[in-house]
User: Fold these one by one.
Assistant:
Number 1:
Amino acid sequence: MEETLTSLEILQKAIKSEVEAFQFYNKLQEVVENKVLKKKLNFLKREEKKHEKLLRNIFKNQFPKEKIKLPKKGFTPLPTIEKIEKLSLESLLEAAMEAEEISEKFYRENSILINDENSKRLLIYLSSMEKSHYQILKTEYDLLTSFTSYEAYKKFSLEHLGP
Amino acid sequence: MEETLTSLEILQKAIKSEVEAFQFYNKLQEVVENKVLKKKLNFLKREEKKHEKLLRNIFKNQFPKEKIKLPKKGFTPLPTIEKIEKLSLESLLEAAMEAEEISEKFYRENSILINDENSKRLLIYLSSMEKSHYQILKTEYDLLTSFTSYEAYKKFSLEHLGP
């Protein structure tokens, strides 16, 4: 049975998820060698940081008397930081794409449960931004998987997409 | 009847379209007051500049002996620079979204006509990037159109998405 979250819990879980997404992209951009992808991951990392801020503001508006208590885990199933160096880039991009899809759905579905009109708008806005993130990752994923090896992809990126 | 373009003409038309898209976003980012949107348009503008470069490189690889001759118009129906200040933000975003959709289709369809494997890959890559651009614009468009006035949208952006 799925647990029913209160809007306070939803927001806390969302903040935690954005923190985790930031940490994930932050580590991933350190690890990847391809500069084009590194830049894209840096962009995504900064976006997730902005989302965290935005959610903290929604929380403050909705629950001015409450303190934010982050749960142990967010709602996205991202690999732990320790695992990042052990996984292939293909698996990492797949995990990130899945997390963005789940985020998109989470924000869209939960926007219905929030009464305040502006907070609702912001959740829909976040949902739509996660959809762009998914597409940014998919562009890179499709390019990577069009090659038979990671080395061939790296060589192509360096030669055609610039250093 | 639709005209059939050679791969040389396709590339020249694509380069011209990216130049036009760059000019469009460049002017639009000057005109909009909302800082979040301004940043996004700046991002899009820089991306189109990179696409132009990428296409020029494909051209050089495919036709090392030819000089690039840009046609009068690209393939995207963007408003002229003079019209930008006369149109509503809603119409401008709609035009930009349509242009990104047409670009996505144009690159995907024409990737089939190019023989060289790497140039083909790059056109598919461009197509997929235009899809992300569409989604970035749609996020902002949906937010804008959720308000009854441009002023309300501007006020919301300033208060909730930061200066």
Note: The interface with chain A takes residues 50, 53-54, 57, 118, 121-122, 124-125, 128-129, 131-132, 135-136, 138-139, 142-143, 146, 156, 160-162 of chain B (CB under 8 Å).
Number 2:
Amino acid sequence: MIQRLAIVGVGLLGGSIALAARAHGLAREIVGIGRDRGRLDAPLRAGAVDRVTTDLAAGVRDADLVVLAANVLANEELLATAWSAVAPSAVVTDVGSTKRGIVAAAERLALAAPRRFVGSHPMAGSEKSGYAVARANLFQGAIVIVTPTDASDPAAVKTVTTFWEAVGGRVSALDPDSHDRIVAAISHLPHVAAWALVDAVARFEPAAFPFAARGFKDTTRIAAADPAMWTEILLGNREAIVAGLAAFRGALDELERLVVAGDRRGIAEELARLKTQRERLA
Amino acid sequence: MIQRLAIVGVGLLGGSIALAARAHGLAREIVGIGRDRGRLDAPLRAGAVDRVTTDLAAGVRDADLVVLAANVLANEELLATAWSAVAPSAVVTDVGSTKRGIVAAAERLALAAPRRFVGSHPMAGSEKSGYAVARANLFQGAIVIVTPTDASDPAAVKTVTTFWEAVGGRVSALDPDSHDRIVAAISHLPHVAAWALVDAVARFEPAAFPFAARGFKDTTRIAAADPAMWTEILLGNREAIVAGLAAFRGALDELERLVVAGDRRGIAEELARLKTQRERLA
């Protein structure tokens, strides 16, 4: 039982953490922290959080578990402020989509003042954002990656893992570098592809938009993701995304080569191979 | 009321046409035609068609409406056989995803023997195929593009349009060139992107597959489309697909340029613009 859970940023993820913690009776008190007091009204009125504040240091003081749920680069800045306010016994985590940056920031801060940080990435976002779309079961069955390092306190890793499991997550541990490379492949690259597809239609044949059916809509659904959140993700994982894009261009080139060559058998084999690969995901 | 409706290829689309025509009482008799007698058993037993044959010429003889629902290049070959078997009063259409090829084939055939052909493209496919996934309401609310030319008989255009409207389609008319360019943008290019995404993950970081969440799955759902069908589509619409790919690469390059430059404002503006564009589709 957490005595005090502090959530910094009460949007889709932060709000869902509050609702899930409440639903599963995981915390005695839940504090919602945000820059904009107005945005904290809805979770407070709904009882998702017990109290709210715009004062980060005051909000995280005496919390056992602090979850940074703002955008990824903002989390790195918030971490520095939280670091000097939390108790040495507290555990701090985050929910950002890139992990190298914040884990490195935590390790730098720990040199001056030992505190316990373990990165988390619940893969349960949406193209929609804000507390209005938060829900208690957002993490039910979701993959949650935690990114401990050799410097992590095992008890803190256990606290964070147990918390995610308690809200329904399926937890895997990865080192921060592997995490960032894996999410570049499976999440960031598909977002870039979805934005580029929307842009390609606008560039090549804007008259096609009214003919968009389910295929185009599904393929580009994530192009409606929050621009502020994704600007930080793209900047926070630049290197892996650029490497992933090179592989993507290689894959496009190969398909185009087969089409231009009119290689019927080569195309059929390639599409069959990729169909099988895709169907393994179910 | 159609006296005899002949459907060549009783898979997802052909089978759904049979079921929809039956459900709406549009045809007195429905004939299912296919190369493989075994595959015609299911629609016959289900009563979707009244009789079946593997003899194309016999099957289309005396039909008022013939629908070619095999793969796109196969349809072009079947058209030649059907042409010499159908009555001059019959109307022939198809359901293929590319239209320049088959419309040109029909116009060539009409030089020797005038018959009435109007191309159709119901945008109601699926990554699944075969009669097992056919359903009577497949075309309900679906966009159906018909592609008459100056050479088309207005009464035949009306017959085909009325038929698609009767099964729930929202019919638009486009010339074959515009059709092929538009579907290259809104359907063929997204398929190529989906295949390339699956391949990119396999090339760049195959360990990422187990972490695929809803975003990746939606973005690549259509990568499981039928290889035989799509080989013909890619070959049948090569030129427009290659042009669309050039626009797609341009869009990828622009996003990558902003990310590599660390242009926070440029990225945020671009993502906001593309979000707005995507959300217009709803």
Note: Chain A touches chain B through 89 residues (CB under 8 Å).
